[in-house]
Amino acid sequence: GNSVTQMEGPVTLSEEAFLTINCTYTATGYPSLFWYVQYPGEGLQLLLKATKADDKGSNKGFEATYRKETTSFHLEKGSVQVSDSAVYFCALSKAGTGGGNKLTFGTGTQLKVEL
Amino acid sequence: DTGVSQDPRHKITKRGQNVTFRCDPISEHNRLYWYRQTLGQGPEFLTYFQNEAQLEKSRLLSDRFSAERPKGSFSTLEIQRTEQGDSAMYLCASSLVTAGLYNEQFFGPGTRLTVL
Questions:
Q1: Nearest Cα to A56, choosing from A73, A78, A77?
Q2: Over the stretch B88-111, which tens digit does the pLDDT of each residue have?
Q3: Residues of chain B with pLDDT under 50
Q4: Which of B41, B103, B110 sits opposite A43 (nearest CB)?
């Protein structure tokens, strides 16, 4: 079945540091890939998405590129801020249906950014 | 507020009791999902509805669990004879499914269940 593996946290960075959170997936066909973020006390929010190979999703300075050859969707940000502290989840959905079908999530990576 | 809402936000119950959670999706959304999230894990899919029809159920959804969406609007998730292993955050999400377009799922804040 489908599965998502992401790097374990917590990840602690200083403000303005470069962020990478690794995510790899196992799926049949061509799934759509997502990063969700969960800020303290809030619900999950979609951060960015990519629906086909080589697509780059981007939002709020975060980027991730859909790499089919390595089955990866690593999250990056060039300069993190304290306000980026949250839990980040990599997820995929059934091939061909965008976000309209069930999501399979990774275990989440907690990011803490310090001054 | 036009987001997904869930009620209650917290529920503490004793083992063996029944509990019911409610989810109100974004009003025009035709698809509604339930997920369960345990501590330190990502959300796991439980079931989803297209309007009032329940189209898929996960193997995680034992016979003690039942979900309904009677008029294609709000949904309820009931757990009968709760067990300590049912302690988790129960998340609801909704989306508007239109042919050929990407459909983002919007999540509610969740209901945290603690079974003593």
A1: A73
A2: 999 999 998 876 666 788 999 999
A3: none
A4: B110
